[in-house]
Amino acid sequence: MNWDALLNETFWINMAIVVGITLVSYLVLRTILGIVTRRLNTLASRSKTPFLGIAAELLARTSRLLILAFSLLIALKAVELPERWESTMSHGWFIALAFQIALWMDTGVRLWMESLTRDGKARNPVTTTIIGIMIRIVVWTMMLLSILANLGVDITAMVASLGVGGIAIALAVQTLLSDVFASLSIGVDKPFEIGDFVVFGEVAGTIEHIGLKTTRIRALSGEQIVISNADLLRQIVHNYKRMNTRRIVFKFGITYNTPSEKVKDVAALVKRIIDGIEIAKFDRAHFLGFDDSQLTFEVVYIMQVSDYNRYMDTQQEINLALLDGIRGMGVQFAFPTRSVEFIGGRLPEVTVAGLPREESAPTQDAPSSQPPQDAQPTA
Length: 379
Known about the structure:
Layout (H helix, E strand, L loop, with lengths): L2 H4 L2 H39 L2 H11 L3 H13 L6 H33 L1 E2 L2 E2 L2 H26 L5 H17 L1 H16 L7 E4 L2 E8 L3 E6 L4 E5 H5 L4 E2 L6 E9 L5 H16 L4 E12 L2 E10 L4 H21 L51
Antiparallel strand pairs: 1-2, 3-4, 3-7, 4-5, 5-6, 8-10, 9-10
Helix pairs in contact: 2-3, 2-4, 3-5, 4-5, 5-6, 6-8, 10-11
């Protein structure tokens, strides 16, 4: 140990300068970060801008250890150092800055994952976790490679080996990766979420779980249907959970003997009935055409809610009101009828099964073949 250097007055003066500037720089940086963070939080609450809130959260999660490291590096600039120390300090600046940027990006990923949570429940927790882990791995890998490159390490061979290994793994688990990327696509694009009612092909049910490889659906009949994510995305999926309104079309018919004036009144009756229902919006009611045994009306209205049970209650209310209104107008609903016209010839005799046939009565003027009971033979 160089005891002469320890007894040198200049050494202790430089040490005091470094310590003093480090403490002052640390307090100044902490104060500035605190002021900027509070200011961004205030602006975010006033303007309702998510970006400002995220920026404030990132600054609030700045590492205190790295702030101290930056303060020490600033202090070392104030004193005279050997040439090799200058080179070391340049690497120190880069390493500290790379670590802090990686921490900020990691925090940003965590905040993004939290933003996907609604009402304390993630709609797709598996996909969210996978995406978060993959992004964080990429962030920290890039940070490590950049630090190694700054220190003079040749990372070309390392990057090439990682690429070849990644291709080999991808070919080995191609089917699994297709389902994994399909799961990621579901999580990012969000065509459906847990709790949505979907219909595709012959399947109709509620999404229960979106996993790494498969999606599980609870069918209306009660059983659970499991389908791979890649196969599911190849289907045309109808998501009824996101239906805001429901367009309803229904038909009914009245008899052909209805006068034209009352036919016009039937359309007006339908409009009055639907206008009297709060959650239904009348669109149209027309005498559509002449069908077999009936004059056909087509009615269209828009349900302002998507609930199927409320739609059925509304349709029942309309049907009952139509039943009373049509009968009150003296009009009859149509039912299938057939008229048969017989021209010429003789109608065939019809015998009804189970009924006795009527026998014809004997004529009164026919001679009797039996003698009277009271006649007596003569001698």
